[in-house]
């Protein structure tokens, strides 16, 4: 495992605004019952998902990302031209290049920003937030735009019941700025990767190893392949581990956490990790029933619901955690407080 972390930064960064976007079309468990051999009961029991949103043909990740980004920038009281850095966590870029960051920059008119895409699968948002927070803390950016966005429906095999019931499409965006308030902002992060788990969750073709060909298409290799149980076990263990490490380093016990916002891959993963950590269910945000697993967008979608439901309030100690393909693991500890 490769570990990178930092707890002391020159100035603390914070999330000053947040916005999300999901496409209007809803794919319910009943719809999936007509497509593959599954049932509403199985999906709900095994994953916690009732429905997910998916795009219409022709709508791409940068479209969802741009919708969320425009709102986040407006909510921060800024103009697109105030943004100087864009980092997009995604596994489903519109195309391999140009990057989604370039496409979003152009769509929203953030003409003064530079940026790039970050490939960390379901840890896309946590890793992008870590990156932007470091940029802001070190003075490299004044107004950074962090996006987690995925159109998972573009890489899902809707004849494979083991994957198609899980995923959905969505986007979340946050503006990250220096915090004027010493009690608000990102305190620490704990990120690590374990590349030995690569084969457990991947899209085998379409890269330099197996470029697209009639053969790879015939073998359906441009779709997500997952060893569900292997990923499940790794996710439970490492959701807990990443949280434990960051709490320990900051001399905090789990009781001090006001809210746990985990990546939403499976209701059972989140609850068993929380139980092992000793965080009660009422302090855990779960909204997977409405969105499914939107990969890099789950955490902003969950944060946004928590804010709307007033479960996440100014000054709350928030623990964010994600486990994704790679494997990638990330957690952030922060004191919540939006700009307005
Ligand atoms: O965010 C990225 C990370 N991804 C994850 O974290 C996903 C982690 N894995 C999971 O969430 C779970 O492993 C799944 C939801 C993918 C699967 O749940 P499970 O409880 O691990 O099921 P399983 O793979 O052990 O399969 C149990 C049974 C099998 O049938 P048999 O062999 O017992 O007869 C499967 O064929 O359920 C069957 N099955 C289904 N049945 C109805 C698998 N998928 C379905 C389905 N509908 N959609």
Structural notes for this entry:
Residues about 1-10 have low confidence and may be disordered. This protein is an alpha/beta fold and about 350 residues long. It has helices spanning about 30-35, 40-45, 60-75, 100-110, 125-135, 160-165, 215-220, 230-250, 265-275, 290, 300-310; strands spanning about 1-5, 15-20, 25-30, 50-55, 85-90, 115-120, 145-150, 170-180, 185-195, 200, 225, 260, 285, 315-325, 330-335. It is about 30% helix and about 25% strand. Strand 12 (about 260), helix 9 and strand 13 form a beta-alpha-beta unit. It has two domains: about 15-180, Thiolase/Chalcone synthase (Peroxisomal Thiolase, Chain A, domain 1, 3-Layer(aba) Sandwich), CATH 3.40.47.10; about 185-335, Peroxisomal Thiolase, Chain A, domain 1, CATH 3.40.47.10. Bound molecules: oxa(dethia)-CoA. Oxa(dethia)-CoA binds near residues 47, 228 and 324.
């Amino acid at each position: 495992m490769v570990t990178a972390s930092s707890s002391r930064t020159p100035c603390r960064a914070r999330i000053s605004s947040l916005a999300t976007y999901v496409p209007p079309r809803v794919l319910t468990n009943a719809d999936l019952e007509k497509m593959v051999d599954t049932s509403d009961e199985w999906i709900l029991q095994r994953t916690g998902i009732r429905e997910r949103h998916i795009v219409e043909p022709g709508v791409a990740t940068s479209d969802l990302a741009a919708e969320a980004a425009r709102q986040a920038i407006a909510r921060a009281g800024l103009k697109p031209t105030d943004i100087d850095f864009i980092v997009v966590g995604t596994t489903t870029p519109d195309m391999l290049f140009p990057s989604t960051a370039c496409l979003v920059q152009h769509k929203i008119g953030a003409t003064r920003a530079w940026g790039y895409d970050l490939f960390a699968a379901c840890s896309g948002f946590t890793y992008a937030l870590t990156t932007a927070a470091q940029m802001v803390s070190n003075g490299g950016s004044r107004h950074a735009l962090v996006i987690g966005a995925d159109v998972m429906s573009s890489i899902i095999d809707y004849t494979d019941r083991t994957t198609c019931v899980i995923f959905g499409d969505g986007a979340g965006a946050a503006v990250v700025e220096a915090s004027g308030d010493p009690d608000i902002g990102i305190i620490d992060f704990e990120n690590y990767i374990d590349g030995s788990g690569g084969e457990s969750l991947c899209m085998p073709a379409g890269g330099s190893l197996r470029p697209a060909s009639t053969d790879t298409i015939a073998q359906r290799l441009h779709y997500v392949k997952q060893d569900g149980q292997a990923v499940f076990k790794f996710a439970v263990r490492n959701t807990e581990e990443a949280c434990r490490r960051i709490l320990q380093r900051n001399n905090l016990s789990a009781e001090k956490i006001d809210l746990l916002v985990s990546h939403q891959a499976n209701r059972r993963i989140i609850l068993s990790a929380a139980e092992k950590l000793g965080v009660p269910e009422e302090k855990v945000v779960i909204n997977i029933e409405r969105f499914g697993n939107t990969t890099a967008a789950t955490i902003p979608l969950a944060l946004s619901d928590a804010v709307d439901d007033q479960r996440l309030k100014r000054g709350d100690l928030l623990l964010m955690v994600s486990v994704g393909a790679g494997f990638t693991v990330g957690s952030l500890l922060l004191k919540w407080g939006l700009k307005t």
